[in-house]
Structure formats: C-alpha cells, structure tokens
C-alpha cells in the first residue's frame, strides 16, 4: 500500500473506536454500513461498480443462502465476505459456513469479519477453519497489521499476491509435520551435540533435555506460524505438548477446574473459563481443566491473564455470548487466559481411581502438574 493509503487506514482505527462506543454495535446492518463497507472501499473495492455484489445467492442443495459480499474481478467471483455484528464473537461455525459457501461456488478466497477482526481463508486448503485459515487481522492494531490486511486488497487478489501468502503458510504447515515425523531423530541429534560438549557423565540428563528441546522447538514453530493478528475469543490450541516441557515455564500456583466433555468448547471459544466460586485471596498463575468421563483427566493448561471480581449481574459479563450465560450465578467469576497460552497435554493427568472425579476447584502447583502420575497427586 502507498503511504497515503496507510495514513487513511491508520485514521480508520478512529472510525472503529468511535463506532464501538455507540449503541449500534449489536446491529449487523449498522456494522456493515459504518465499518465494513468503508473498510472495503479503502481496500480498493468500488461499491458503485459491478465489482461488489451484495447479498450474493449461493445455492446449497435445494436451498438458496446469501453471502453478504461477493467481490468480482473480470467477470469472475474471486472472494466472498461474510459480515457479523460488531459485538458478535466469530465462532468456528461461522468460519465453516463461509468456507462451505466458497467450496460450493468454487470461490477460493473467503473472509469473515465483525468489523474488529477479519479472518481470511483459502477454501482449497482443507475443510476446517484451522486448515483453511491464512490470515487473522486485528483491525484495532492498524497500521501495524496493514501487511496482513493487504491479503484482501483488490490489488492483492488481482495480482495473485494472496496466492503467495497461502503457499507460504502451506509450506510452513508441511515443515511442522516433517518436524513431528522426525522428532525422535532430531532428539538424538540434539543429544549427540550436547554430549560432545558435556561428556557422558550427564548422559541421562542430556537425554531428557534433548527431548524437551525438540518438543519446545516444535511448539515455537507452531506459535510463530504465518497466521498473524491478535487472537480473538475464538481461541486456538497453540500446541500439544508433553508435561515435561512445562518445566521451561515459570513456577506458579495452578487452579484446576472440573468440566464435562462438552464444556471444553467454552474454553476454546472464549479462551476463558466461567463461572466459578473462588476466593479473592488466591492469585493462581495457571489454569488447568479436568475433563470428566470418558476423558477423566486433566487435559488443558493455560496462563491466567486476569480473574474478574465476583460478578453481580449479567451486564458485567464481558466477551461471552448471551447463549452461554445460562450457568451464570451472582458472585461467581470468570478466568481469562493470556493470548496463545492454552495448550493441550499429550500425556494428561488421569484419574486412576474408582472414586468419583474432580467435583470442585482444586489448587496445585506447576511442579506437581509436571510430576503427577494421577489426579490425587495434585
């Protein structure tokens, strides 16, 4: 983008900020008119021409659905954009829907936005949100994230630049798969290199460190994958690691909370956990989730960013959709996790007991999490 275009985009942040303070944020129509359409115009799309079609029909079976925007170049539909209200959390279902529309109409590039976040997908890359995502842009971070936003600029799609970005992402994912396939071989090579320096006396320790090094290297590679932008409440599990890798994290207290298997979606969706009764005197550094039968194990861990004060009304509930308010009770709290800190444990901590699993919150430590062989060890 030119310097002038960057300046205009920078000023656009103020438009978004002003809109966020109005009573119109729950309206999809107002979000489209006040935020999304002005943004597309700044990205080179001319609404007075035939390049932009509103409410574009997509036929799925015998039913006709409509995509908010179809972007047309040289008579060919090149991209779909689906819009949601400003205060809507972009869900995986929303993503999968627009991806399916693109597949049906053979449209490779599709995007989903609420005026704050834009997710850009390559429908040829797979079937799920995770497989197809090539860019996630936080519009409140402009102009820092302007290069990622360039993915859906008219010139980028017309020139094929977006294809290069998608190809880089595909190659990065393939590299991660290869790293995982050769994990043992790489660990052995780490071990040989370290032993040449340390000597055989500490061989056992070197073996353990080598395994941790390769797992941590894969973890770093995954977290730095080329899907840029700030995380949204629709969270991604950043990695799946063994518990010994946790030794690289700072020590701290862990609050362990119980959940039914279907509660895991809440955790993934909001990068948060609620609603819980806990003392304001405790300040745990980490959150862990025990998933009940048939999992019956502590399976997820994340670093805590903040814990709300005891909530007295639904009006105080932030970043959680109305449909997920049903278990709210006054006096309970919500734990919010740090961006990209949520991990899934490859070797979860099992119940290993005929007694009932975890029924209430439990406090432990990261050290115990690493060493535990069963839930009672926490």
Describe the structure.
- The protein is an alpha+beta fold and 378 residues long.
- It has three domains: 3-165, tt1808, chain A, CATH 3.90.1570; 175-223, no CATH class; 239-377, Roll (ph1033 like fold), CATH 3.10.590.
- Helix content is 35%, strand content 25%.
- The protein has eleven helices and 14 strands.
- The chain has helices at residues 3-20, 28-42, 92-104, 129-132, 146-149, 154-159, 161-181, 183-198, 203-223, 264-270, 366-371, and strands at 52-60, 63-73, 76-83, 109-113, 117-122, 133-138, 239-241, 253-259, 272-276, 286-291, 297-307, 333-337, 343-350, 362-365.
- The strands form two sheets. Strands 7, 8, 9, 10, 11, 12, 13 and 14 form an eight-stranded mixed beta sheet that branches. A six-stranded mixed beta sheet has the order 1-2-3-4-5-6, sandwiched between helices.
- The longest helix has 21 residues, at 161-181.
Percent of residues in β-strands = 15-25%
Query: Mind telling me the C-alpha Rg?
Result: 23 Å
Q: For the record, give the distance between the C-alpha atoms at the N and C termini, rounded to a whole number.
A: 54 Å
Level of helix content? Answer: 25-40%
Q: List low-pLDDT spans.
A: 225-236
Reported by name, the CATH topology of the largest domain is tt1808, chain A
Please describe the biggest sheet, giving its number of strands, its sense, and whether it closes into a barrel: 8 strands, mixed
The overall pLDDT average reads 84
Shape: globular
Q: Compute the number of helices.
A: 11
Order of helices and strands: HHEEEHEEHEHHHHHEEHEEEEEEH
The structure class reads: alpha+beta
CATH architecture of the largest domain: Alpha-Beta Complex
CATH class of the largest domain: Alpha Beta
């Amino acid at each position: 983008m030119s310097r002038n275009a960057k300046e205009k985009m920078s000023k656009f942040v103020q438009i978004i900020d002003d809109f966020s303070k109005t009573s119109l944020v729950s309206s999809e129509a107002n979000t489209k008119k006040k935020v999304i359409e002005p943004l597309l115009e700044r990205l080179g799309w001319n609404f007075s021409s035939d390049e932009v079609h509103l409410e574009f029909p997509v036929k799925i079976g015998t039913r006709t659905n409509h995509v908010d925007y179809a972007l047309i170049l040289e008579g060919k539909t090149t991209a779909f954009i689906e819009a949601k209200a400003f205060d809507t959390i972009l869900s995986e279902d929303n993503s999968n829907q627009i991806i399916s529309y693109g597949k049906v109409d053979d449209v490779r590039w599709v995007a989903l936005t609420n005026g704050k976040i834009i997710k850009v997908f390559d429908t040829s890359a797979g079937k799920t949100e995770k497989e197809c995502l090539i860019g996630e842009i936080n519009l409140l971070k402009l102009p820092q994230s302007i290069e990622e936003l360039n993915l859906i600029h008219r010139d980028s799609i017309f020139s094929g630049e977006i294809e290069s970005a998608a190809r880089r992402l595909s190659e990065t994912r393939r590299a991660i798969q290869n790293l995982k396939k050769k994990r043992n071989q790489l660990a052995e090579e780490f071990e040989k290199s370290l032993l040449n320096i340390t000597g055989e006396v500490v061989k056992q320790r070197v073996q353990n460190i080598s395994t941790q090094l390769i797992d941590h290297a894969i973890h770093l590679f995954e977290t730095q994958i080329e899907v840029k932008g700030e995380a949204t409440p629709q969270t991604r599990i950043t990695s799946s690691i063994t518990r010994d890798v946790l030794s690289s994290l700072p020590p701290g207290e862990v609050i362990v909370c119980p959940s039914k298997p279907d509660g895991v979606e809440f955790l993934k969706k909001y990068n948060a956990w609620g609603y819980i009764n806990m003392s304001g005197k405790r300040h745990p550094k980490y959150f862990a989730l025990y998933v009940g039968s048939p999992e019956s194990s502590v399976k997820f861990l994340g670093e805590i960013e903040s814990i709300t004060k005891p909530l007295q009304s639904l009006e105080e509930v932030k970043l959680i959709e109305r449909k997920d308010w049903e278990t709210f009770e006054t006096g309970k709290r919500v734990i919010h996790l740090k961006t990209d800190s949520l991990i899934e444990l490859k070797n979860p901590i099992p119940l290993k007991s005929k007694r009932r699993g975890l029924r209430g919150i439990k406090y432990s430590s990261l050290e115990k999490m690493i060493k535990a062989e069963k839930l009672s060890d926490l």
